[in-house]
Amino acid sequence: MELLSSALLGVAQDIMKKQFLEAAMQGQTMVVRSLLSNGVDAKCKNDEGENAMHFAAKDGHIEIMIVLLSHGCPLNAETDLCKTTPMHYAAFGGQFNSVKWLIENGANPLAEDWEGDTPAHEAYFNGHPELGMFIFRSCKHTASTIHDAMMWGIRTDNSNTVQNFLMTGADPNSVGNFKLLPVQEATILGRTTIMKILLERGANMNVTRSSSGYSGCHLLHLSVRCGNNETTKFLLEAGASVNLKTSDGHNAIHLAAMNGRSSGLDLLVEWGADLEAANKEGDTPASLAGKNGCNGLKTKIIAMINTII
């Protein structure tokens, strides 16, 4: 009989815990208070390690968060797998008031999840750049986290974010955790406005990197390969040499031909690129276009050469 009573009590407690977490999620303050007064532990979690503070923070239920804190619910509790805190959840949901309240009450804005992301990163990754900047300004982030957030600004084409982080102290010539320099990331993605900002803030336009089998690619090569004509034109106007070679001996026009970038090739020709330039193996733009299945472009190049002749 005692075993049965114990089992029934366990079932009842599980039901109340589930109701408690759901009430926190749905903003039902009176239900939360009632369940707490009936013995539910404010620190209880679900199977993923989420507590009521996680749910209330994510949906901006400040009144419930106040009640939870007064009953001992931790502000910095981590979920079991991803190690995310209530502030991560609030940042994910774009809940400015939740984040502000958590910081004011002692939550850690520098808490890292299992991937090393802070709440500020979570805000940026999920389309809340203003909230991300608020979190960054509320505490002293490391150079690495500032740099990574700036890189996400580049990826989401948010020039204001990039500008703000550069003013905060982000290094335009640091690789960070992304394995690319900011100006290389901007070039590959065709973020011309952001490239201008980075160069104005001291980014090195003459950097090189290995790229998919091609070593020593300059920004112009990366831009041409990716078909970013606006960026290519910007680089040429900024002084990049149209005949700049990779360490493998490829000119930008070779890369345009190999990758089927017809309009990019036209742009390079306008800037004086040599349609008959040979790389180290003796291949010309026309032969490279043919070898890479761009037969229409090969025919076009030959016709352009014949027109010039």
Give your account of this protein's structure.
This protein has a two-stranded antiparallel sheet with strand order 1-2. By secondary structure, it is mostly helical. The protein is elongated. Helix 10 (159-168) packs parallel to helix 12 and helix 15 (252-258) runs antiparallel to helix 16 (262-270). It has two domains: 18-141, Serine Threonine Protein Phosphatase 5, Tetratricopeptide repeat, CATH 1.25.40.20; 205-309, Serine Threonine Protein Phosphatase 5, Tetratricopeptide repeat, CATH 1.25.40.20. The longest helix is centred in the N-terminal third of the chain and has 25 residues, at 2-26. Strand 1 (208-211) and strand 2 form a beta hairpin. It is built from 18 helices and two strands. ANK repeats lie at residues 48-80, 82-114, 182-210, 215-247, 248-280. Keywords: ANK repeat, Repeat. InterPro entries: Ankyrin_rpt (IPR002110), Ankyrin_rpt-contain_sf (IPR036770), Multifunctional_ANK_Repeat (IPR051165).
